[in-house]
Specification:
By secondary structure, the protein is of the alpha+beta class. It contains six helices and eight strands, in the order E-E-E-H-H-H-E-E-H-H-E-E-E-H. The protein is 42% helix and 25% strand.
């Protein structure tokens, strides 16, 4: 087989702790997996657009908000009871547990994605993407920190005291690291007779296959 002798392109090695965001685009819509406060979460393109816009309040709305704020200020000391506080605490714990569960699933999916390898080398110079379902693919983009000063969350915790003692905070180092980012983009097409997905790196003519679980785990995770 001539492809045994063809030079296959490399898959970049990306440390999970350096990943900032994963974008999954298909059919004109985009879902994102982002890490905030050490937890992974999914946001849709629509959600991102909504949160970036500010709504102009009407006079009636402003008046209602002021009235509600005044009422809350007057009654908060008498209405808050120990039982209510316990209920609120329990609710927060449950909510946090759910967020952590989702984050763990997403973290596992991202790890699988970063660890994928090619199953087979299908074509060196593909001229007909439709043969592999790559003419209208699912596009996955991994955005990661490329700075040498980037550090993992665990390292950040371990070095916080030492860094602050030296006058350089972890926050400052992370900010510097965040300024240098790179991305890895690849396209996912249809499956072969073994159920493996055809994939193509962005800008490349080569077509390979990867195990279905690598892709399916990520697609399943973003639907949680």
């Amino acid at each position: 087989d001539l492809y045994d002798y063809a030079l296959s392109e490399d898959i970049p090695s990306i440390d999970r702790d350096r990943v900032k965001e994963v974008e999954i685009s298909a059919g004109g819509s985009t879902m994102k997996i982002v890490k905030e406060d050490a937890l992974w979460r999914v946001i849709s393109e629509t959600e991102a657009e909504k949160t970036s816009k500010t709504e102009e309040p009407t006079e009636a709305k402003e008046a209602a908000e002021k009235e509600e704020a005044a009422k809350t200020e007057e009654t908060k000391e008498t209405e808050v009871a120990a039982e209510t506080e316990e209920t609120a605490d329990d609710s927060k714990k449950t909510e946090k547990s759910e967020e952590e569960t989702v984050s763990e699933k997403l973290d596992s999916a991202v790890s699988d994605l970063l660890g994928f390898t090619y199953v087979s080398f299908v074509e060196h110079n593909c001229q007909d993407l439709s043969l592999y379902g790559l003419e209208d693919p699912v596009t996955i983009r991994v955005i990661y920190n490329t700075s040498e000063s980037a550090i993992s969350e665990k390292e950040a915790e371990d070095k916080t005291d030492e860094a602050e003692g030296e006058g350089e905070t972890t926050e400052k180092r992370e900010k510097t690291a965040a300024e240098e980012t790179g991305d890895f983009i690849f396209h996912v097409g249809s499956t072969d007779e073994s159920g493996n997905y055809y994939v193509q790196q962005d800008g490349s003519k080569q077509v390979h296959t990867v195990q279905a679980d690598t892709i399916n785990n990520l697609l399943t995770a973003i639907r949680v």
